[in-house]
UniProtKB/TrEMBL annotation:
<dbReference type="InterPro" id="IPR045063">
    <property type="entry name" value="Dynamin_N"/>
</dbReference>
<feature type="domain" description="Dynamin-type G">
    <location>
        <begin position="71"/>
        <end position="409"/>
    </location>
</feature>
<dbReference type="InterPro" id="IPR027417">
    <property type="entry name" value="P-loop_NTPase"/>
</dbReference>
<dbReference type="Pfam" id="PF00350">
    <property type="entry name" value="Dynamin_N"/>
</dbReference>
<dbReference type="GO" id="GO:0043022">
    <property type="term" value="F:ribosome binding"/>
</dbReference>
<protein>
    <recommendedName>
        <fullName>Dynamin-type G domain-containing protein</fullName>
    </recommendedName>
</protein>
<dbReference type="InterPro" id="IPR030381">
    <property type="entry name" value="G_DYNAMIN_dom"/>
</dbReference>
<dbReference type="GO" id="GO:0005525">
    <property type="term" value="F:GTP binding"/>
</dbReference>
């Protein structure tokens, strides 16, 4: 890496960060600063006021965090995933040992930093900002002492961990500031997450707001096994374990996730291979999409070990995620299908053997049992674990099957070696965002201060009217959008019925003639000159050998999947067209709603409201092309009994040695036949198609409703928040008119000075960004 160049660019970035922080302090001293915005369920509107007192404080914290990371050359890689996606297992696999606990309930209510610390073999946790938790436990103590235990048990699942925590609260035993070792750390993190659940049930607010700053969250220091043999780099790698947006039933966590991601240097998304199109995964992808243009984004598609031969392969998964699920946010080469559990178990076993020469007692360490099940098979014995060369080979094969080698070498090794460059890139992105927002704010403030009273008052009144108009027209716009959505749903429903009919007809033709219809074979070259899979009109396929029967079944399955793939292609293009038309129509409606406001603003002010957020992409909810379940028991074995009389000394001797001298002089012989009932198979496939279409219909309806409703709410919250921010800015200009002429002149000069400064910051940041992009390309 160009170490000297990175160092010089980092020095320039530090200078710009310090200048921006100093400028924020100056802006905060402006007369009539905006009061703090009260927290509401709609945080989008509040966030539009970036220069209220709490908005300035938030930006101050972000820039200070970037300055700290840049000074320490720290790259923070945020790990994001929904509950049960395997986020904790993935982090353990990345580290090479178990640092985070796994439970079948949310386990990341508070973000946690895991910092690679060479030489720190035993993990240690620091939790200095514990005062808000202690205050919470005081409130919980008062409530628990006077609460009905039976009523509490009806509302809360009380296991051993929760029972221990409740007793600690009653006994007034707080949290420590330091924990050393895996078990004490597990205990601390589990207790923190159980506190969230307990607080929710007892209707006591958990102090999430006290842990939005990275400096206040728990920190685990441990050596990453994968990086232990590398040379000390120019920089530091830190993982950020973030709460999923659906964890612990706390709506505040989604906002906390956005806050934490905005301060990360890069993001790694952990997706569940078995739940790629779930609503919870969709919520997480939306959050990541909001920061995807500011930081690099990677994706690990976990649980890929559950793939069967009919499931999507690596190439198809990358295309699905990059092209549909996270379009425009991530590139295919940043997507890695993996098995985090296999990787974690394999690497931990290899590391244990390297350190101690053997594996621990499986009765005392459950992970050893899990490793043996995965690597040696479920019939493993203790003797198998004693064969160290065999265990090492099995661990290596399991590690290779986990597919984690490539993402670790691509992401972690590169991030570790380029931590300083990633930290620099992150700082410049935050500087760019700040300078843009500050430039808009200061330009509007300067214009407002230079207007006469009448013009200024007219603009303020116009904004009040615009905000009132937005509220009044919201129901009308929602009605128009509902009509458009219902029309799109009708089109999708008609297309599903047509598609189902075409597939039924194609299957009927195939089972009558034994060949895939010509309209499909033209799309599938491998079937173009295919011999018939069976004789036309045949309804039972009978074979005397199992191998021939399975070969016939494979041909039929391949042909049926070709029909399904053909149907998918038609459905994908049609649904995509319907979704794109709906998106364009809704965008037109939003722009028509916004156009009169934009015209009035641009007529008197050299600024305007930003365009609304684009509609989220509607996923292509396709038919399940896998028909494996229909063929699971399609092959049946039949036996017919043949009795043949045998005489002579040889047969008598055989019966005598077999202990059958008291039986009749005969021998029972079985004739085996393997049968495929084409009628039953066709009926199963028809039912599968019908059921898949109905499931797809419900999924599309639900997703359309969620996406469009959320987009509508986001649009009005964004626009209203932006208008209110402009209005507050102009109101401050009006209040400034109450000051003396000298004070007004002084304020104008200060605003103009800040505007000039932020212009320099913006230009220098742009040049710095170009240099960093050049470095990043050179490193690829």
């Amino acid at each position: 890496m160009h170490t000297q160049t990175v160092f010089e660019l980092s020095q320039e970035a530090e200078r710009l960060l310090q200048l921006a922080i100093s400028q924020l302090d100056s802006i905060q001293q402006f007369p009539a600063s905006s009061p703090p915005v009260a927290a509401t369920d709609s945080t989008v509107a509040a966030n539009a006021n970036h220069f209220s007192l709490n908005g300035i404080q938030r930006q101050h914290e972000i820039l200070q965090s970037e300055l700290r990371k840049l000074t320490h050359q720290e790259m923070v890689l945020a790990i994001v995933g929904t509950m049960k996606a395997g986020k904790s297992t993935t982090i353990n696999a990345i580290i090479g040992t178990e640092v985070l606990p796994n439970r079948n309930r949310p386990m990341t209510a508070l973000p946690t930093l895991i910092r690679h610390t060479p030489g720190q073999r035993e993990p240690r946790l620091y939790f200095p900002h514990v005062l808000p938790i202690e205050a919470l436990m005081e409130n919980l103590h008062t409530c628990l002492v006077h609460s009905d235990r039976q009523a509490l048990e009806e509302r809360l699942e009380i296991d051993h961990d929760m029972e221990t925590l409740i007793q600690r609260i009653i006994d007034k035993q707080g949290f420590e500031r330091h924990y050393l070792g895996a078990q004490p750390i597990f205990y601390c993190l589990k207790s923190l997450n159980d506190l969230v659940r307990l607080s929710q049930v007892l209707n006591i607010d958990f102090p999430f707001a006290a842990y939005t700053a990275i400096e206040h969250i728990p920190v685990i220091e441990v050596e990453f096994v994968h990086l232990s043999e590398q040379e000390t780099p120019y920089g530091q790698l830190t993982l950020l374990d973030t709460p999923g947006p659906n964890e612990a039933g706390q709506p505040y966590l989604q906002q906390m996730l956005k806050e934490q991601l905005s301060r990360a240097s890069a993001v790694m998304v952990v997706l569940d291979y078995t739940q790629l199109k779930s609503i919870s995964d969709d919520e997480m992808r939306r959050v990541v999409a909001q920061v995807g243009d500011k930081v690099p984004v990677y994706a690990l598609v976990n649980k890929f070990d559950q793939k069967d031969r009919n499931s999507d392969d690596e190439k198809q998964i990358r295309a699905l995620i990059a092209g549909s699920l996270m379009r425009g946010v991530i590139s295919p080469e940043h997507i890695f299908p993996v098995s985090s559990m296999w990787g974690y178990l394999a690497y931990r076993a290899k590391h244990e053997i390297e350190q101690h020469g053997c594996l621990p007692n499986p009765d005392q360490h459950r992970w050893v049992q899990d490793f043996a099940d995965a690597a040696l098979g479920r019939r493993w014995q203790l003797a198998d674990l004693a064969n160290i060369p065999h265990v090492e080979q099995a661990a290596q094969l399991l590690w290779e099957d986990s597919l984690l080698e490539r993402p670790i070498s691509t992401i972690l090794d590169a991030a570790h070696g380029k931590a300083s460059l990633f930290a620099l890139h992150s700082a410049v992105q935050k500087l760019n965002s700040y300078s843009r927002l500050a430039s808009e704010f200061l330009f509007l403030r300067a214009q407002g201060l230079n207007m006469d009273n009448d013009s200024l008052q007219a603009h303020i009144q116009s904004l009040e009217l615009d905000i009132s108009t937005l509220y009044s027209c919201q129901a009308q716009v929602a009605q128009r959008i509902q009509m458009e959505m219902e029309e799109a749903i009708g089109q999708i429903s008609n297309h599903l019925d047509l598609c189902k009919q075409r597939v039924h007809e194609a299957l009927k033709s195939y089972f009558e003639r034994g060949v895939v219809p010509a309209m499909i074979t033209k799309k599938v070259p491998s079937l173009l000159y295919h011999e018939p899979d069976f004789t036309p009109g045949e309804r039972l396929l009978v074979s005397g050998t199992e191998n021939l029967a399975r070969l016939s079944l494979f041909k039929i399955s391949h042909s049926c999947e070709a029909i399904m793939t053909w149907a998918q292609g038609h459905m994908a293009s049609t649904l995509s067209a319907i979704a794109e038309t709906l998106k364009q129509t809704l965008t037109v409606i939003f722009r028509q709603t916004l156009e009169p406001i934009e015209q009035r603003l641009s007529a008197g002010l050299d600024t305007c409201v930003k365009e609304p957020l684009s509609l989220p992409d509607i996923q292509n909810m396709l038919l399940d092309a896998s028909v494996a379940s229909c063929f699971a028991d399609a092959l049946t074995e039949q036996r017919t009994v043949n009795t043949q009389m045998q005489t002579g000394i040889r047969s008598a001797m055989q019966r005598w040695f077999n202990g059958a001298t008291d039986q009749l002089e005969g021998n029972t012989d079985y004739s085996r036949q393997f049968v495929i009932n084409l009628n039953e198979l066709q009926t199963k496939l028809i039912q599968h198609i019908t059921q898949a279409c109905e499931q797809m219909r419900g999924a599309v309806y639900a997703q359309l409703d969620v996406s469009v409703t959320q987009c509508l709410a986001t649009f009005f919250a964004e626009v209203t928040g932006a208008l209110e921010a402009i209005q507050r800015n102009l109101n401050h200009c009006m209040l400034a008119r109450q000051q003396s002429h000298e004070q007004q002149q002084g304020l104008r000069k200060r605003v103009q000075h800040c505007l000039t400064t932020v212009t320099f910051i913006r230009e220098d940041t742009r040049l710095l960004q170009e240099d960093i992009q050049t470095l990043l390309k050179a490193e690829q």
